[in-house]
Amino acid sequence: MQDFNRDLFMELINNILVNKDSYDRIDPGVFQQYGVKRGLRNSDGTGVLAGVTMVGHVHGYVVQDSEPVPIEGRLDYRGIDINNIIEGYKHDDRFGFEETSYLLLFGALPTKQQLEMWNLLLASSRSLPDDFTEDMILKAPSPDIMNKLAASVLALYSYDENPEDMSVENQLRQSLQLIARFGTIIAHAYMCKRQRYDGESLYLHYPKDEYSTAQNFLYCVRPDNKFTDEEAKLLDLMLVLHAEHGGGNNSAFSCRVLTSSGTDIYSAISAAVCSLKGPRHGGANKRVMDMFGEIKRNVRDWTDDDEVRAYLGKIIRKEAGDGSGLVYGMGHAVYTKSDPRAIILRRYARELAVKNGLSEELRLLESIERLTPEVFDMIKGSKKTISANVDMYSGLVYKMLGISPDLFTPMFALARIVGWCAHRIEEVTTGSRIIRPAYKAIGADREYVPISERK
User: Fold this and answer.
1) From 57, 242, 332, 423, active-site residue
2) How many C-beta atoms surround the C-beta of residue 374 within 10 A?
3) pLDDT tens string 40-67
4) Hey, is 71 helix, strand or coil?
5) Per-residue DSSP letters for 256-320?
6) CA 434, CA 97: separation in Å to the nearest integer?
7) Does residue 20 register a pLDDT over 70?
8) Cα angle vertex 357, ends 371, 291, to 5°?
9) Distance CA 19, CA 22 (A)
10) Separation CA 354–CA 359 (nearest Å)
11) Where does residue 95 fall: left (phi above 0), alpha (psi -120 to 50 degrees), or beta otherwise?
């Protein structure tokens, strides 16, 4: 087999593009001309209604006189306020992710007996198939854990004795196994990445039956297996907060689009993983920490609002940051006055920040949250209501937990697999048509030219 000829490829590409300023770029005005809802968004920024769901509800504004009006954000799982879910299991000093996964998949809170059965089933499903780690992960490590996670999910199809059965019972069985195995796949992929690309020793740990999802993850990604109950409980909170966010978010919608075609669960969930990897979606938490690091380096006095305000202005004017003009961690597609997840996370992070000597960093993040809206108003003249989203604080929490930036987005996937599976089952049971929006073709008609006459 011949090696790929990069020089020949570049010669071909340069020849193709010699008379083009850009490749197939469409004038933005064309979208407005044909009334296209770019990004499936209305002109006021609200989402185009593409379906209905009973899984989760993201409530960030109300519509009055055909205009969106900002309100405090609310997030419901199966109709229950996320704050009440957290207060419920925290009151009993329990881990909450397993209960949350049961609620999202089955639509009701489990009894004590049902939760015990669910935990036993998860524990018995966390181990990967024989030789899976060796064949699918060790032999081809990836520098990005999300790519390896997506490939591993697809590979699980080959280990399933009944992968194409679309019955609810089989979909629930597959969902349970995927939820249980995600943490093990991510941990092993991360350890292999460290060994291959970072020159670290290879440690492969295997989940323990008596541990929760959060405990097992910390056990598997730490070389010494050690963690505190407080750390595990905070990670568990992160998983609960990220488990579901409505059917309109990019990864859940990707899962539903693929599901509507009739494809198998492994294909649909792999697509959701690939979607979540993007920096405009799940990858945003790492962007926040990159931006935060830059602000820390360039702002001498973190307590000086004027100095922080001035640097935020540079970011918004594209004089600093990554040149996008975005203050990562601020603003959301649905939430306006507040993101309930960010409020909860900030509250529970404060105590651990003190213990880890990160109080000053937390206060700086809070200053960024407080000052960004007025800087946007000053520079852009924008009166749009914006607030911090969950990404503003999730990266710092992961840092407190000693979790590598390589795992920030995979941690998101570890939680969101629950929401994806719940939306898939809802689509399987209630969807009856393939999701197929329209695109307007605007290219001019042309004649076919024989190859001998082409120039």
Assistant:
1) 332
2) 12
3) 888 877 888 899 999 999 998 887 877 7
4) strand
5) HHHHHTT--HHHHHHHHHHHHHSTTTTTHHHHHHHHHHHHHHH-S-TT-HHHHHHHHHHHHTTSS
6) 32
7) no
8) 40
9) 9
10) 5
11) beta
Angle, CA 431 vertex, CA 429 and CA 436 arms, to 5°: 150
Distance in angstroms (rounded) separating the CA atoms of residues 241 and 440: 39
Whether 57 is catalytic is: no
Q: Which residues contact 125 (CB under 8 A, 6 or more apart)?
A: 176, 177, 180, 181
- Given its phi and psi angles, is residue 65 left (phi above 0), alpha (psi -120 to 50 degrees) or beta? left
**What is the Cα–Cα distance from 341 to 30, expressed in whole angstroms?**
38
Query: Whole-angstrom distance between the N-terminal and C-terminal Cα of the chain?
Result: 32
Task: Out of 76, 236, 391, 406, pick the active-site residue.
Answer: 391
Q: What is the pLDDT of residues 248-257, one digit of tens each?
A: 999 999 999 9
CB within 8 A of 298, min separation 6: which ones? 311, 320
- What is the per-residue pLDDT for 22? 52
Give percent above pLDDT 70 in the chain: 98
Q: What is the pLDDT of residues 308-351, one digit of tens each?
A: 999 999 999 999 999 999 999 999 989 999 999 999 998 888 87
Q: Give the SS3 label for residue 416.
A: helix
The chain-wide mean pLDDT, for the chain, equals 93
Q: Which amino acid is at 442?
A: I
Cβ proximity of 447 and 79 under 8 Å = no
DSSP conformation class of 138: I
> Which residues have CB under 8 Å from 50's CB, separation 6+?
40, 247, 248, 253, 435
Q: What is the pLDDT of residue 368?
A: 96
* pTM for this predicted structure: 0.92
Calculate mean pLDDT across residues 17-45: 78
| 64 vs 247, higher pLDDT | 247
What is the mean pLDDT of the segment spanning 197-213? 96
Q: Contact at 8 Å (CB) between 219 and 244?
A: no
Which tokens is 103 given? 């609620």
- Answer yes or no: 332 catalytic: yes
Catalytic residue among 59, 81, 205, 281: 281
- The helix/strand/coil state of 207 is coil
pLDDT at 24: 67
Look up 188 and say whether it is catalytic: no
**Which amino acid is residue 279, in one-letter code?**
P
Q: Which of 438, 437, 440, 436 is nearest to 34 (CA)?
A: 440
